Amino acid sequence: MKRLLLISILALNYFLSSAQGFEGIIKFSISYESLPAEMEEAVAMLPKEQTFYIKDSKSKFVQNSSMSNTTVISNSDDKSSIVLMEAMGQKYKMTMTSEEVEEMEQDTMDEIKIEYVNESKTIAGYDCKKAIVKMDGMDEEAVFYYTDKIPPLKLSGMEGLHLKGLPLEYIISMEGMKMVMKATSVEKIAVADSTFDIPEGYTEMPDFMRDAMNENDN
Q1: Cα dihedral sign, 55-28-62-107
Q2: Strands of the sheet with 203-204, listed across from one edge
Q3: Distance CA 43, CA 31 (A)
Q4: Counting C-beta atoms within 10 Å of the first and last residue's C-beta, which end of the chain has fewer, N or C?
Q5: pLDDT digits (tens, 9 = 90+) for 48-75
Q6: Is residue 103 part of a domain?
Q7: Domain range for residue 35?
Q8: What is the CATH number of the domain that holds 73?
Q9: Which has the closest alpha carbon to 143: 107, 169, 104?
């Protein structure tokens, strides 16, 4: 099951598997340095920020746009994740089993090559080092700036990306779109257990929708 993103590149859906030893909230901005011509008029509808909540083995990703809302709740103890999607008045959830997560991790481990570069920059108050990542399906090399002061997290579609720390900025080019995700704040604060509760009102995503997303990722 080869994939670069769990849902689709337009939704930019990322999820975390826990960063042991870190509890808090990390916020990222999303900017677009280039877009395909057919998407330039729709840039206002694309997501502009994403937020991660982390506590012990649990993590939560939230990303909203004018077109859709996406939440992903994960638990690294049992390697499970639940994707919650809301768009056009419909609410769906997609449960990822530990077997599916492990399969994605193995697939991407076989595709990813990491080159560490002697270059650094300060992001959200953290000294970050540079890594260049080559991965099948990307238009060009991806650039990551990571801090070794926070344990690494796993990104959806890049479960095999084992960097030496947490990425606080990453630049990815895919299908003519170049995106820059950059941390704007890193808060080490207490996160309530209820943050990771699964809300009601979501129905399990039909198999045909899951199959369609898998086909788009292959």
Answers
A1: negative
A2: 113-123, 126-134, 142-147, 166-174, 177-187, 24-34, 49-55, 58-64, 69-75, 80-87, 90-96, 203-204
A3: 10
A4: C
A5: 998 989 888 788 888 888 888 889 888 7
A6: yes
A7: 24-217
A8: 2.50.20.10
A9: 169
The C-alpha atoms of residue 80 and residue 57 are separated, in whole angstroms, by: 11
Buried b (16+ CB within 10 A) or exposed e, 71-80: bbbbbbeebb
User: Per DSSP, what are the bridge partners of residue 196?
Assistant: none
**Residue 76: both structure tokens together:** 């690294």
What DSSP character marks residue 158? B
DSSP for 34-58 reads: E--GGGGGGGGGS--EEEEEEETTE
pLDDT digits (tens, 9 = 90+) for 91-113: 999 887 777 766 666 665 556 78
Please give the tally of structural domains in the chain: 1
Residue 16 has pLDDT above 70, yes or no: no
Residue 156 confidence (pLDDT):
47
Residue 194 lies in a domain: yes
* CA-to-CA dists, residue 178 to 47, 141, 154, angstroms: 14, 11, 20
What pTM was estimated for this model as a whole? 0.80
Euclidean distance between CA atoms 145 and 123, whole angstroms: 8
Cα gap 119→125, rounded to integer Å = 16
Is 5 among the domain residues? no
Q: Which among 140, 141, 142, 116 is positioned nearest to 129, based on CA atoms?
A: 116
